[in-house]
Amino acid sequence: MEEGGQGGRGEQLGSGNRETGSGSEAGREEQQWAGTPSLQSYAAAPAPPAPAAAPAPGPQNPPRAPAKWGPWITLGKVGVTLLTLGLLYNSVFAAPDTAAAWRALLATALGGAGRGPVLGALALVPVNWGLEAWKWHRLARHLGPVSFGRSLRGVLVGLTLGFATPNRVGDYAGRILELKSRRVRALGAVFLGRYCQLVATVLAGVAGLLYFLLTFYLADFPAAELGVITTAAAVCGLVLVPLYRSRLLVAALGLWRPLRRFRPALAVMPTYPARALHAVLAISGLRYAVFCAQFLLLLRAYGVGAGLGPGLAAVAGTFLLKSLVPSLNALADVGVRELSATHLFGLLGQPALPVLSASLSLWVINIALPSAAGLLLVPGLRVWRSRSA
C-alpha cells in the first residue's frame, strides 16, 4: 500500500509539471505519445492469446506424473498391508483352538502374575509421550516462544491426526497448528524430530539384526560375517550424516526437481546448533529405551521366556523392520510389527501367540489410547487457538 501511494503522488507531481509547461511542448508530447499505448493500457488490456505450441515428442505435462503414479503407489501399499496381515493370520490364527488359547493367555496376563508388568508398561505411557513433548518443545522454541503445554497438546493432536493418514503425515499438521507463525520452518523442525527418533531406531535395530544374522544365518561363513559387520558400521555412520551435515541434505534436494519443494522447510535444519542436536538425539534415545522397556514388560506379562540380551535384540530388530516399511496408517503398522516380532522371537524358540499378544498390547497402550486422548482436543483446537491469540 505504501508503494502504491508513493507512485500516485509521483504521478500527480509529474502531471502538475507538465501542465505548467508550455502549450506547444504539451502538444508535441500529446502527438508523440498519442499512438503509443501506456502502461495502464497494458495492464487493463487482456493478454493476447499465446500461440499454439507445436506438439513435442515424448510424454507431456510432467507435473502430472505424481497424480499418474499416485493410485498405483497407494494400491501397492494396500497390497503389502493385506499380504502382511494374511501372513500373520496364516502363521498364528490358522492354528486350531487359537481363540481359546488367547482368552486363557489374556486372563493369565491381566488377572494373574502378569498384572504387575502390565501396570508397569501402562505407567510408562505418560513418560513416553512426555519425552516426545519435551523433544518437540526443544525443537519448536528454536522457532519462537512456545510453552511445554502447547507442545504436549500439539503432540497428542498430531498423534490423533496421524492415526489414519499415510505415514502419519497428520502428525505434522497437529504440531504445526499449535504454532502461531513460521509454519513452513516448523515442517523442518517436525522432520528433524522424527529423523532423530529414526536415528535411535536404526542404531539399535542394526545391532539387533546383526546379532540374528551372526547367530542364526552366518555362523559358518566368517568372510560374510566380516562383510556384514562392515556394512552395519557404514550404515550407522551414514545415518548420522543428514543430522550433523544437514547442509548436504538441503543441497541434495535441489538436484532432483520433485524434491525441491521440500527445501524451504528443511532449510531450518542447519540453523540448529550441534548442542541442540545432541540434546534432541539424547531425548530420542531415552524415548526409545522406554519403548523397549514397555515391550519387555509386556513380553514378561504374557510369559515369553527369552533372555534379556536376545530379547533386546529381537525388540530392536522388530522396531527397525517396522520403521523401514512405509505404512498406510497406524492400523497398518500392526501387521508389520507383529509379523516381525513373531519371526524374530520364533528364532529364539518362543511361541507366536504370546509375542503377538504383547506386540498388540504395546500398540494399544502407546498408540490407540493416546490417540483417543488427543481426539478430545481436536474439536476445540480452533476455539482454543483463537482464545489464546
Automatic annotation (TrEMBL):
Positions of the UniProt region annotated as Disordered: 1-65
Transmembrane regions listed in the UniProt entry: 198-219, 226-256, 352-378
Topology versus the membrane: Multi-pass membrane protein
Domain of life: Bacteria
GO cellular component terms attached to this protein's record: plasma membrane
Residue ranges, compositional bias (Gly residues): 1-13
Any coiled-coil regions, as ranges: none
Tagged with keyword Magnesium: no
Signal sequence range: none
UniProt keyword annotation of Cell inner membrane present: no
Name used for this protein in its record: Uncharacterized protein
